Amino acid sequence: MKHQRGVALLLVLWVLALLSLLLGGLAGWVQLETRQAAWHRQHTQAALAAEAGVALAVQALADPVQRKQWVADGREVALVFDDAQLHVSLRSERGKLYLNSAEPADFARVALACGATQAQASRLAKDLETRRDQGVAPFRVVEELRQLPGMTQALYSRLVPQITLWSGLDRPDPAFASALMRKAMNLPQQSAVGADPGEILVISSRAERPGGYHARLHVTVLLSPAEGSAQPYRVLRWQE
């Protein structure tokens, strides 16, 4: 009888330990899910605030008076949306190298400035020239640049901010070129204040919310895409 009671007690203790373990695991899982849901909610709110920054910039650009206060050379404008601090900047596509008509030598110079080796830059320039000689269709999306033989992810990431598919210019406009572009292409220093940035701009919006939550957007937009259009702009490229 005592032996049976001892076995029953051990069984009860084992069941209680198992239940405690299961309840502890369940409580930990619920806590983790709660934290993940809170993070997702806060991150979503930060992303929406960054989108609001893009919309505020477009709204300002549609106003002839406010537009003068925005210079498309990358300088930031501080804004507030709800409880988020926004840092919004514009960059004209005219200050970038137009990939579909750029001289291969110019492309090589920019690649070198972005960290490519001499051999790598020469190979990429040759690949670009070969592509044109073979009558391959022009680049339609920036991501096609990644497919050039010899292109690495690191170099591609540094090149992308310096190239465009939309300016149509033979050479970058010095007023809107980055410091890297001016040095690589030996462009003169010119002020972007008062210069015409064109209708295609990259709007960069960084949102910071209480608690350290943040989000960043880079959106290439075409302003006034068509007469009578219901939308004041058309998105050409969207990066989060």
From TrEMBL:
Gene Ontology biological-process entries: protein secretion
CC terms in the record's Gene Ontology section: membrane
SUPFAM superfamilies: GspK insert domain-like
Stretches of the chain forming a coiled coil according to its record: none
Protein name: General secretion pathway protein GspK
Organism of provenance: Pseudomonas poae
